Every structure is written in structure tokens, then in C-alpha cells.
Amino acid sequence: MNARLVLLVLVLAFAFAWLPSVAFAHKESDAYLSLRTDRANDHVLHGQWDIALRDLDFAIGLDGDHNGAITWGEVQSRRTAIERYALQRLAITGDGLQCDLTPTAQLIDEHTDGAYAVLRFDALCDKNIPSTLGVIYRLMADLDPYHRGIVTFYAGERTAGAVLGPDRPTATLNLRTPDRWSEFTSFVTDGVWHIWTGLDHILFLLSLLLPAVLVRRRMDDGWGKGAVVAEGSGTLMALAGQPPHYRWEAASGLWPVFLDVLKIVSAFTVSHSVTLSLAVLNIVSLPSRLVESGIALSVLVAALNNLYPIVRQRTWLIAFAFGFVHGLGFASALTGLQLPPAAMAASLGGFNVGVEIGQESIVLAFLPLAYLLRRTRFYRIGVLRVGSLLIGLVAALWLVQRAFDLVIPGFGTLLPS
Fold it and tell me: Distance between CA atoms of 275 and 330, rounded to whole angstroms?
């Protein structure tokens, strides 16, 4: 058997063993905590904490009969456990003095990504309407390093907010002079992490960047024999040993590569910024299942285009078209924010900047290395061809699970229960 084919088979066998670990890509674990002052009692804050049922099920177990569906009866039976688990992981201070937390009600609400438990509680503080509010947030801290709690404090017409999580569990919210810069930077960090932890977004971007350091040329000498796997017109032809009609060659200089990458990144940025803003402002709204399926489809299309090129010279068109879908996916991180214009501008602007920083960091890490390796068979075969094939397999798995809400045994679920 051809040595290259043996190597490819071994790589693919390893990839299938590796797929379960990368297949667990889903909407981030988010919770929404709001605190409001009471007009009739200056010592009381009314809290509402929306926590995804899938997160609570993972943390304390809600699905009593293990049938994959959480009922209202099962949630009610675990009401005390939910209150105890959540409130033990939250501390609130008013001007430095501890506030006592007392649960008052528990409901269910539907968000775009599934059902949430709505835990309502009162925070009784010694100080009447404290000027500064301290929040210590440790929900899911020992279970999910990427969990985020979006906290908003309302006092009359004034608001303050922050994004908290295991890496940043505390915040001090000042109602007299809201720190918009602090709010902005907290959402910048959140945007960076949203990209870095969003494997589907990363694979989409990488699929578009992989061929940027190469040029696809038509072969004039008929059917060549060399580098069948790397230069075949398709993966099936490559595996069957069929001769190619085109081949990938190294780009001649850095400047054309830089322009190509700039077009891809700029097109993606423009389109996802549009839908991100429209979705956060509640102008556009689509079901999470449809958005996540569209993102999986975008990764699959970008990967297949490297194996069976349909869009050969204007890859930025793929980035632009699917960027609208990815923008809706980014917006899910800010769903639930109801802020006045100034606070919303700080949050949305900071998150968008963070997304761009995270995106550019990936490009800057990838491009120099890819440019140095572009002349090697390792890059054309192992990175471009095999890499695109593996990305396509993962994306196909995501698409099936997200579109049909299926659980494939051994791979974990990609959609919230």
C-alpha cells in the first residue's frame, strides 16, 4: 500500500479517537443576575437569577428519571437544593457590609437557548440604598471554568453591570458614578474569551486561512503522479489514487498573502458586527438551534471548499456571508441585557472589541507559521488537506446534532437539554 495512504489512514484513525473531545462544542454556560432597589424599603434589594436548567442538572442533578427531559415537577422537587446550591455561591455587600439572602420564589423561563430556572430572592442590607455594591460570584466555579454571570444592578434610573466568572469572581458596582470604563473592559475580556473558547468560530476562521498562503494552479502537463493526496481535486480522488487537475503551490510573496487574509478578516468583521448589534438591540432574533446549526454549516462549507474548491479566489465572500450567522452566535453571549443606551453602548462596544482582539490574536499566531511552512509537503498534505478533512468531519457531526437535536452515543451533546 502507498506509504502516504497508510500515513493518512493512521492520521484519520487517530482523529476519530480524538473527535469526542472536540465534539463537545455548544453555547457557553451563562447565567443572568439582576438586582433592583425597593422603592418602599431602602434596606432591601430584589434579586432575580436566571440559571440554565442544563447547568443545574450538571451541578446537582434535576433529571430524576434520567430520560433526558427535565420536567417542572422535577424542578419543583429540587427547589430547596437549587436555592441552597445557588445562594451559597453568591455574596452581596452594601458599602462593605454583608447582605442576607432569602429566596422568595422559583419559576421557569424560556431563553433562546433553552429553559432556565428563575430564582428570585431578597437581599437585606444594613445600609439603606448603598452607594457601592459588592458581588462575589462563584456559580459553577468548580465545574465550568468558562461559565459567566452577567450581573446588572438597577437603582432607579441608574444602572451598573459586570461580567463575572471563575477567572473574575468579584466586582464592585458604583451607583453614584458608574464606571463605564470598567464595564467596557469587562466586556472586552468577555469577548476575547468568547472567541478563544468557541471552537466552532475558531475552526471556521482557520478553514478560511489555511489556503491563504497557497495558490491553486491548473496543471498543464496532464495527470501528474506526485503528491496525490496533497494535490488531488478532491479527497475521494486522493484516497483512490486518481490523478489531479489542479495543485496547490506556495504563494510567491508575503504581500499577496497579507491582502488575502485582510480581506477575509475584514469581511467577517463587517458582517458579524452588523448582526451582533441588531440581535443585542432586539431588532433581529432567531432560535438558538437554527443559529448554532448555521454556524456548524459554515465550518463544513469552509472546510469542504479547501477540498473541493468552488470559491477559489474570493474566499472572503464565504467569510462575509457566514459572518452574519456567526454574529448572531456572538450575540447569544449578551442576550438578556436590558440596559440604558450608555451602558448598552459600553457593553456592546467592549464585547465587539474583545471579539476582534481574540480573532486577530488567532490570525497573528497562525499566519507567520503557515507562511514559513507553505512550501513543505507537510503543510499541503497534513495541514491543508488532512486538516480540512478533519474539520469537515467535526463540523458534520456538529450539524447533525444541532439541527436534529440528537445525542450520538460517545460524543456528548452539542445542544442544551
Answer: 9
Alpha helices in 66-179 (DSSP H): 72-77, 79-87
Residue 180 C-alpha cell reads as: 463605564
- From the list 331, 321, 317, the residue with the least C-alpha distance to 275 is 331
Under DSSP, is residue 305 helix (H, G, I), strand (E, B) or coil?
A: helix
Rounded to whole angstroms, how far apart are CA atoms 276 and 93?
34
Greater confidence (51 vs 21) lies with 51
209, 261 in Cβ contact below 8 A? yes
Least confident of 8-12, 31-35, 100-104: 8-12
- Residue 27: predicted pLDDT: 52
Q: What pLDDT is recorded for position 298?
A: 95
| pLDDT at 69 (0 to 100) | 82
Beta pairing class for 148-155 and 30-37: parallel
Please give the Cα distance from 52 to 226 (Å, whole number): 54
Q: What grid cell was written down for 177?
A: 458614578
Predicted pLDDT at 10: 40
For helices 254-280 and 199-209, give the axis angle rounded to 10 degrees. Answer: 150
* Alpha-carbon distances of 261 from 188, 198, 213, 370, 381, rounded to whole Å: 23, 20, 9, 12, 21
Distances (CA, A) of 316 to 46, 88, 259, 279, 416: 49, 49, 11, 23, 32
Instruction: Give the C-alpha distances (Å, rounded to integers) separating 385 from 88, 211, 234, 243.
Output: 50, 10, 9, 15
Q: Is 409 exposed, middle or buried (0-12, 13-18, 19+ CB in 10 A)?
A: exposed
Number of helices and strands in the chain (H, E): 14, 12
C-alpha cell at 250: 506556495
Instruction: Give the C-alpha separation, 328 to 26, whole Å.
Output: 14
Q: How many Å apart are CA 309 and CA 374, to the nearest integer?
A: 18
